[in-house]
Amino acid sequence: MWNRLALRQIAQRTISTASRRQFENKVPEKQKLFQEDNGIPVHLKGGVADALLYRATMILTVGGTAYAIYQLAMASFPKKQD
């Protein structure tokens, strides 16, 4: 069984190891990309992933709107009962 001392040592080791890792600062590169005046809207400057997300959002929005209008129309004209 684990005792408290062993758990504390593992926790300290994990925290100290994580703080020593150095990550490359990519903020200046991203700022340059998004501030570039190339005629592309800012919501599409992220590349292919942004374009796919944008298109999926538009498809879902248009489809959902059409479905809502269809359901409203169906609710407006109830079926006749024989």
Keywords for this entry:
82 residues; mainly alpha; Cyt_c_oxidase_su7a_sf; single chain; Cytochrome C Oxidase, Chain J; 3 helices; Cytc_oxidase_su7a_met; Cytochrome c oxidase subunit 7A2, mitochondrial; acetylation; mitochondrion
List the helices and strands and how they pair.
Layout: H1 4-20, H2 27-35, H3 48-76
- Roughly what is the average pLDDT, rounded to an integer? 86
Radius of gyration: 27 Å
Q: Kindly estimate the percentage of residues that lie in beta strands according to DSSP.
A: under 5%
Q: How far apart are the first and last residues' alpha carbons, in Å?
A: 75 Å
What overall geometry do the principal axes of the alpha carbons give? flat
Identify the quaternary structure here: single chain
CATH architecture of the domain at 40-76: Irregular
Based on secondary structure, the structural category is mainly alpha
Q: N-to-C SSE series?
A: HHH
For the secondary structure, the number of strands is 0
What would CATH call the homologous superfamily of the domain at 40-76? Cytochrome c oxidase, subunit VIIa
Enumerate how many helices there are, as a single number.
3
CATH domain topology of the domain at 40-76: Cytochrome C Oxidase, Chain J
